[in-house]
Write a structure and sequence with these properties.
The structure is a homodimer.
Chain A: E1 6-8, E2 11-12, E3 15-17, H1 21-25, E4 28-36, E5 39-40, H2 43-57, H3 64-75, E6 80-88, E7 105-111, H4 119-122, E8 125-129, H5 149-155, E9 165-169, E10 175-178, E11 182-187, E12 190-194, H6 204-215, E13 220-223, H7 227-232, E14 235-240, E15 244-251, E16 254-255, H8 260-271
């Protein structure tokens, strides 16, 4: 797949209005889904998160059937790829005040799957630590909204294709997530992942891994995580909807080997059809 | 003036590409200028701040002459109105990583002046306190970027046209700014305004008022400001490029009368052609 295809409010189109609040204020949400054989993976989880995000931002939730029909139509002939959903509060006058009854803009688009080397899954990745922090805001924490300048600045800090991901800390130096992934530490056979009540994005694959851990009776804890926790862990993993899971082979000055937890979770995710 | 006019990259147009990073990530900046008799006010300050914002976000600064020519062309027949400049990092593939050599998108648009009652300038306004906090992020503080969900959520908290502005606090409860304005406390003939090193937007009118204070030998301090400081002040003022300055007649449970500082500054701003 090399051509990108886009539906704007259900019709083929390549543009949005210049007064769309998505552009003016980042006033909206998005979802990024892996496609396999014409179907977006973890589709119900993506729709659930989008609906939850709408609730958090005070947006009317989109019709799940409409989104599903448009997405399946766009994906029909695609064996592997990326489906992106983007929803904004729609057009509005100048000024922050949201319209009482917004007419959201809905964009569904197809993209090629990123071309990562297979070694990222088998041998692990180097995870650099970014200088750009994530600001605290409980009102926005967890939501996959369109205010993503922190991630853009963090991802702009390095330019080495051999380093696919960077770790982001909050303003007090606690570990939150990767620029495009969530992070897990594995210690004594259990999982620890940062709480996302003050900042960060609650990833769909993070939810899936936590659900999987519950199914497999793997202890999992959500809490405060420091760089020292990562450096002391038996394994470190990053997760997102496109990659599923990558083991980390280097972080915070420490080298790690991909371990049994990464392999076990990745195999289970594949069996579940989550990746 | 009732029709809105828009130039996108110098050409009349009403739309931007759906893959513009301004829409995808709020990856850009904007300026809002008051228009008077065909000319944007405080134009050099607006261009300076835009250039500084570009530097902060790693964007190539737009050509001042091009922006000036486009803006003056658009404003030519307009007696009073609002000119908005919006600059994004332009188109890009999926993914946060900014392109090494971006081709920014530039939008210049005309809007009607908001229709506020004259009493807001003479009798003052009620300033409510918003529940939505401003998250700390030194990397983005001060910049008028397109990540404005905090302001959108704060402005969505109330719906009373008699209350034109809300005060925003940081996550520790310190005063930062209004949703669309900066704030000053007046105590013993001097000005105090919040430092904007961790969050907030460094408004062009705030800069102008600070410059004016220096010219008039009015002591002005930038520092930490609490709600108690506002409640204990002789006067409280809010400023932005469109309103110039409004006295506050009610904030944090306290009633105030518009005082001599508000009148003096507003008269001086008018004499300087800043409003």
């Amino acid at each position: 797949m090399t051509t990108t295809r886009v539906l704007v409010d259900g019709s083929p189109g390549l543009s949005v209005r210049a007064d769309d609040r998505g552009l003016l204020y980042g006033d909206g949400l998005f979802e990024t889904c892996a496609l396999r054989d014409g179907r977006p993976l973890l589709w119900a989880r993506h729709l659930d998160r989008l609906a939850l995000g709408c609730q958090r931002l005070g947006l009317p939730a989109p019709d799940r059937e409409v989104l599903t029909r448009e997405s399946l139509g766009l994906c029909a002939a695609v064996r592997r790829g990326v489906l992106k959903l983007l929803l904004t509060r729609g057009r509005g006058g100048r000024g922050y005040r949201p319209p009482a009854v917004p007419t959201p803009t809905r964009i569904v688009s197809l993209h090629p799957l990123p071309d990562y080397p297979p070694s990222f899954w088998t041998d692990g990745i180097e995870l650099r630590v970014c200088a750009t922090p994530l600001g605290d805001n409980p009102r926005l924490a967890g939501v996959k909204h369109l205010n993503r300048l922190e991630q853009v600045l963090a991802r702009g800090e390095w330019d080495d294709p051999a380093v696919p991901e960077g770790l982001m800390l909050d303003t007090r130096g606690r570990v939150v997530e990767g620029t495009m992934s969530n992070v897990f530490a594995v210690t004594r056979g259990g999982l620890l992942t940062p709480a996302l009540e003050r900042c960060g994005v609650a990833g769909v694959m993070r939810e899936e891994v936590l659900a999987l851990a519950a199914d497999l009776a793997i202890p999992a804890r959500i809490g405060e995580v420091s760089l020292a926790d990562l450096a002391a862990a038996d394994e470190v993993l990053v997760t997102n909807s496109l990659i599923g899971l990558w083991p980390v082979r280097r972080v915070a000055g420490r080298s790690l080997a991909p371990g049994p937890m990464a392999r076990r979770l990745l195999e289970a995710l594949r069996r579940r059809g989550a990746v």
